[in-house]
Write a structure and sequence with these properties.
The structure holds 2 protein chains of 2 kinds. Chain A is mostly helical. Chain A has a domain at about 50-85. Helix content of chain A is about 70%, strand content about 0%.
Chain lengths: ~90, ~130
């Protein structure tokens, strides 16, 4: 619980300054307008990088679990039920 | 720990999306207003100086434009695909969206909300011209 709180606090502390910096970058000067194509593409790109990274970690973990805990793995330890032949 | 990571990621995703939406929706103060009227099945554009165009829109590169989008009949959706401009035209409402064309060229404008028989051909052309000297 303490870890969750610490993470939440870290995110909430880190996000507002970054937001404020970007707000100043969005100029109202003629010829220096914000390009919505760039902003929207960048958001999409960042979120996709995160999504694919997390997807790779999650699916990699699942593949590893299936490989590591397969019945034929030399390191596999039979469950109590398997040992007793009860299954 | 795992819940913390997930919550932190969700907060981050939400904050990023909220921030970009806020930036994109902030209309520059000097944006020129263009009133866009959608009706079955064509677009009408009215500039600040009273000039009206039907089926085509002429703007200058390097300037900001704010579209005030209305509809006189059914729901349409005003879309300039090349500039990622998309906003519904709803009867009884004025929806706004802005953009700033960067270089001269021709771009398609089309309706993105099915609005009846000729919806597929409810198109217009955006002409971005070099700034007047």
């Amino acid at each position: 619980m303490r870890g969750i709180t610490a993470l939440l606090v870290a995110v909430l502390v880190a996000v507002p300054p970054a937001t404020a910096m970007q707000a100043h970058a969005a100029g109202d000067e003629p010829g220096e307008y914000l390009d919505r194509r760039v902003e929207i593409w960048n958001l999409f790109f960042r979120l996709m990088v995160v999504a694919f990274t997390i997807g790779a970690i999650v699916s990699g973990t699942m593949v590893w679990q299936v490989w590591r805990f397969r019945e034929s793995n030399p390191n596999a330890k039979p469950t109590p039920y398997e040992e007793k032949g009860e299954w | 720990m795992y819940i913390g990571v997930v919550v932190a990621l969700l907060v981050w995703v939400g904050a990023e999306a909220w921030n970009v939406e806020r930036l994109v929706e902030h209309v520059p103060e000097d944006a020129e207003v263009i009133r866009v009227t959608g009706q079955q099945w064509f677009w009408t554009f009215e500039h600040e100086d009273g000039t009206t165009e039907v089926g085509e829109l002429h703007v200058e590169a390097g300037k900001a434009y704010k579209f005030e989008i209305v509809s006189t009949d059914v729901i349409h959706s005003f879309n300039i695909h090349d500039y990622v401009v998309l906003m519904d035209a709803v009867p009884g409402r004025v929806n706004t969206v802005w953009f700033a064309p960067t270089e001269a060229g021709e771009h398609d404008i089309q309706c993105r909300e099915y609005c009846g028989l000729i919806h597929y051909n409810m198109r217009a052309t955006l002409y971005v011209e070099e700034p007047a000297a």
